[in-house]
Amino acid sequence: MEPLLSLKHLVKHYATQKAVDDISFDIQKGSIFGLLGPNGAGKTTLLRMITGIFYPDGGEIILDGKPFNPLEDISKIGYMPEERGMYKKMKIGEQALYLAQLKGLSKADATEKIKYWFKKLEMESWWNKKVEDLSKGMSQKLQFVITVLHEPKLIILDEPFSGLDPLNANLIKDEIYGLAKNGATIIFSTHRMEQVEEICDHIVLVNLGKKILDGTVKDIKQQFKENIFAVQTAQSESIQDNAIYNVVRREEDQVLVKINEGYSTNQVLTQLINDKVNIVAYNELLPSLNDIFIKLVEGTHASTRAFQNQ
Amino acid sequence: MNKTWLIIQREYTTRVKNKRFILVTFLMPVLIIGFGFGFGYLSATGTEHRKIAVIDPNGFIKNSLKNTSQIEFSFPSQVDTINYNKKGFTDILIIPKFDGVKKTDYILRSKKSMGLMLQNSITDKINGAIEDKMLQESGIQQSTLDSIHKASQFAELKAYEDKGSSTKESNAGLAMGIGYASGFLIYITLFIYGSMVMRGVMEEKTNRIAEVIISSVKPFELMMGKIIGIGAVGLTQFIMWIVLIMTLSSVAMGMLPADLQHQVASLQQSNGQMGAGMMQASESATRIYQMQHTIQTANWPLILGCFAFYFLGGYLFYSALFAAVGSVVNEDPQDAQSLMFPITMPIIFSYLITNMVTQNPNTPLAFWASMIPFSSPMVMMARIAYGVPSAVTYWELGLSMVILIAGFLFTTWLSGKIYRTGIILYGKKVTWKVMLKWVTTKQF
């Protein structure tokens, strides 16, 4: 299948450094794509190029099979930046209407769609309120509605859940699934790895302006697995290092073992049974994205760079 | 273009619907008229009263020191510089013996220092007395002197300007008034609407809505939409003020007594001359007629047309710069202050130049200041009030307008470059030097 968005060797310089340094990846239609990276890695710059706010210094962006043209393609994109803002003194309904019209919707069309979404997310009573009367979470919900209102093919959400309570976060999460199911492609940028693991199909990790990881969540976990298995048992003291495996850690009711190269999981099981260990559960421990993230980013001076970038 | 129109609409309607706008629009004329009356009332009633004791060994000056509404002269015998205050005098004036040759000092001692105007009027009176005294000594009769003094009030200058074949009455006082008023209005509105643009841009930046919007429209469209929208608000306000003032003054005319209105009307028909057989016009009718007549000598369509042009031109010229400043300011209002300084300075200087030009419309300073777009909106209005083409030739006016248009195209281009970088840049303190770099290097 042809990807919806394809970045080819994108480069963007700032005065003193390369904010984005030769990054390429594809995003498939209808997928939920995670763009990860520490602060200052170049995520926002990358997103600003995809939304047409910045022009790349080099490389190419292909959207829907054609070179990206910011003026024409703006209506195909919905962007919810991390730094969210609203006109504080403007009525919410009017504000949503204004922003939808700027995206190219007609007034009647926009009104109808706003009403639909307000009803769906139980925001109907908000129309005549002002943004300054809303809580942070509420204005976030409003932001989300404004982002997806014009039915964009590509929805870019930068930290969409920050400040939302679990109830509203779930509400938005369900909407994101729904939108992806209906064919929209979603780029999801965050530092919250547990959300990425839960939501995203495919991720890219950038650091210091370069892509350092690209793949499905499943593949990446396989790629970074360290052959560690958890053995749940009451007789943990019976498990000792041997030729087949080494004990990594002992916990209250389970032991983590690392299988040595050249041995299979069944050989571990046979050994355990021979040692008269009563096995309650036996399963592979895959690294969390959080672990992978920290492992890859740690020690790369990412934090100092983030500071310079401010 | 369609989206710029949406932005203009939003900027315009949110401001015009605002209660403060409506209040200011209706209260401003009332306030101005109220201040005018208040000022007039205070200056009519609140003048200080001086009681001056005069010690004059010459004797001849006494006749010339006539009492006025503000000064009461007395010639007591037992008063000196120590006790004058105790005896109820505010000042004491000591006139030395006059020998008719030397310039001498006249001493005025006061508990509270006297204003320059009063001092000058006393000096004039004394000099007049000396002049009379010397004229009399050279053989001129007092009665001759009196008639000469009277005759010296005869002349009143009535100026006309020649326009090709026709001659038109001109009025320097009115020209000065119009020049001053329009210069002042442009000065004030540049500040009000310029800083409104700046605050609007700052709001969008600190609110972080700018990034949402410029993912839909080009930064330049957002900036222009704001500038044009707020400019339209300013224009609306002016038009409403003109309508309000015209309505108020015609209402005021309608409230005059019927025979007075009738007299004014007949004066207008007869061009100010009371024909034989007509009833004599009262003093107030004549005064109203003269005021109307004076106002009519100005070329109002030209003045209003030029005012609209120079207001808009000056506004566009400066508001683009204000927008650029707004876009680079972070939350700290002190940054705004220091960055605004280079913009507010030329506005203030232009206003000072305008004050000079209202009196001398044809100096080299007036010419150059009415060409340079930083000052031309204010200064040219002061010159236009003296008449086109008599004070300002058509080519001067045309050139000034072309330069102003070129000027605001330039500042808009310049500010557009600063704006599109500044509006999404957070947390960095920006100096004019950095901005210059944004203009000269290709950023995006």
Polypeptide structure, described:
The complex is a heterodimer of chains A (310) and B (444). Chain A is of the alpha/beta class and 310 residues long. Chain A has two domains: 5-222, Rossmann fold; 226-285, Alpha-Beta Plaits. Helix content of chain A is 35%, strand content 27%. Chain A has eleven helices and 14 strands. A six-stranded mixed beta sheet of chain A has the order 6-7-8-3-9-10, sandwiched between helices. In chain A, helix 3 packs across helix 4. Chain A is elongated, with a radius of gyration of 24 Å. The model of chain A is unreliable at 303-310 (pLDDT under 50). Chain B is α/β, with parallel strands linked by helices. Chain B folds into two domains: 2-30 and 173-245 and 297-440, no CATH class; 50-141, 3-Layer(aba) Sandwich (D-Maltodextrin-Binding Protein, domain 2), CATH 3.40.190. In chain B, strands 2-1-3-4 form a four-stranded mixed beta sheet, with no helix packed on it. In chain B, a hairpin with a 2-residue loop joins strand 5 (159-163) and strand 6 (166-170). In chain B, helix 10 packs parallel to helix 14 (394-422). The model of chain B has no long low-confidence stretch (mean pLDDT 82). Classes of the chains: A alpha/beta (310), B alpha/beta (444). At the A-B interface, strand 6 and helix 3 of A face helix 1, helix 5 and helix 6 of B.
